[in-house]
Amino acid sequence: MRILFSGTPAYGHLLPLLPLERAARRAGHTTAFLTHPSLASVVAPAPVIAAGAPLDVTLAEFQKRTGKDATADMSPATAGEFFGGTRFDLGADQALAAAHAFAPNLVVAETADFLGPLVAAELRVRWASHGVGIALEAPLAEAMWSTAEARAAARNIVLTRPFASIDPWPACLQRDDWEPPADRVTIRPEAYGSETGSEWRQPSFPGREHLPRVLVTLGTLVDDSDALVKIVASLAGQEVNVVVALPPSAEGKTLPVEGAGVHVTGFVPMGLLLQGVDAVVSSGGAGTVLSVLGAGLPMVIWPMGLDKPLNAERTAALGAAEVIGAADETDAAVARVLDQPSYRTAAQVAAGHIAAMNPAEDVLTLLTGRQAR
Questions:
Q1: Three-state SS at 233
Q2: Which residues of the chain have pLDDT under 50?
Q3: Rounded distance between C-alpha atoms, residue 232 and residue 254, angstroms
Q4: Residues facing 243 on adjacent strands
Q5: What is the pLDDT, as a whole number, of residue 250?
Q6: Gyration radius of the chain over CA positions
Q7: Is residue 12 a contact partner of residue 286, using CB atoms and an 8 Å limit?
Q8: Plot region of 29 (φ>0 → left; ψ -120 to 50 → alpha; else → beta)
């Protein structure tokens, strides 16, 4: 079978698709990603079929059209026009050309991507939606869908609804009023690990090996050196070792921090970063939250925009995280999550829920079996 995976060219939108894509490739299916080539190294060795503009260009075009910053305002109107409108407009022609060239039998598109559904409609093949975080509220999801539906209709193409909704977000982290859709299929999220290998090794802290290790990361999207420096400064009074992971956009850069207990690294797959860690300080991105909870580790979250405040609130509701509002609150919050066993216990309970979700291989069997009928 030929399976096309489609997603917004951003780490947080593509990484959640990798477990299923890799399972498909291991099973002998032919796979490819419909996205911008700027993310080719992230999904490698799966090939990329180019469609649309890189994220920064799409953001700039959206701001030019609307005067709004899509990274700061994610109201239904903004989300609808950004994902269902601007990104759709910039990639539809390439996506349709790619559809005929690749000729997929099945399309898997992340929830904010509408180029994949466009391809599926054009070729009259079924497609599955793949979540990347907490379930979208109905007004947001409908605004995105209706905008994309109108854009497709202008091309005389009628979008079809997905036949399955693949969900990597465990029920214990959903909103209190959330109800699972009838077509929901859970998939166990996995911390990202590169198939092409990594030369990174866990840092050593001579003479300090007995101290807890704290990972500090603001994720792949937030590039805020000042915030990282302030977090490290706040932790200076704690008896901990600190590993600071910079985002991909900071490649080749470092931070003006020093000390025997501080190590700064560039972008490293989360699966490697979490090894030997006792607690994590993050901005609350969906991928980070799922990876850290999947490892049974407690968190301190300083939420920075978009879905992060909600992710932080849900994780704190489990008892697995402390939520802070400023960098100088980091030290006290880290001390609490390290000293009070309840945080780790709650994180381990969440890890159990995540482990009980369907492995990617089972989801693949379900999808390809449904596709065959």
A1: helix
A2: 371-373
A3: 13
A4: 215, 263
A5: 63
A6: 21
A7: yes
A8: beta
Helix, strand, coil percentages, rounded to 5, for the chain: 45, 15, 40
Of residues 369, 372, 367, 373, the one with CA closest to residue 163 = 367
Rounded CA separation 253/247 (Å): 10
Amino acid at residue number 168: P
CA angle 37, 123, 183 (to 5 degrees): 90
Question: Tokens in use for 176?
Answer: 């209190």
Q: Which residues contact 177 (CB under 8 A, 6 or more apart)?
A: none
d(CA 204, CA 310): 35
Question: CA-based angle 24:267:301, to the nearest 5?
Answer: 95
- CB of 68 closer than 8 Å to CB of 39: no
Q: Name residue, tokens 């490892």.
A: 295
Rounded CA separation 281/231 (Å): 9
The pLDDT of residue 257: 78
> How far apart are alpha carbons 230 and 227 in whole angstroms?
5
Instruction: Tell me how far apart the alpha carbons of residues 12 and 128 are, in angstroms, rounded to a whole number.
Output: 18
Rounded CA gap, 305 and 317, in Å? 19
Residues making up the chain, counted from first to last: 373
Name the residue with tokens 């159990």: 352
pTM: 0.92
What is the model's pLDDT at position 229? 87
What would the pLDDT profile of 286-300 be if each residue is shown by its tens digit?
999 999 999 999 999
DSSP line for 269-292 = -HHHHTTT-SEEEE---HHHHHHH
Angle between helical axes of 115-123 and 87-102 (0-180°, round to 10): 40
Signed CA dihedral, 119, 121, 124, 126: sign only? positive
In sequence order, the β-bridge partners of residue 146 are: none
Give whole-number Cα distances, 235 to 171, 244, 257, in Å: 33, 12, 12
Amino acid at 177: D
Question: Contact 262/245 with Cβ under 8 angstroms?
Answer: no
Contact 114, 122 (CB under 8 A): no
On whether the CB atoms of residues 1 and 29 are closer than 8 A, the answer is: yes
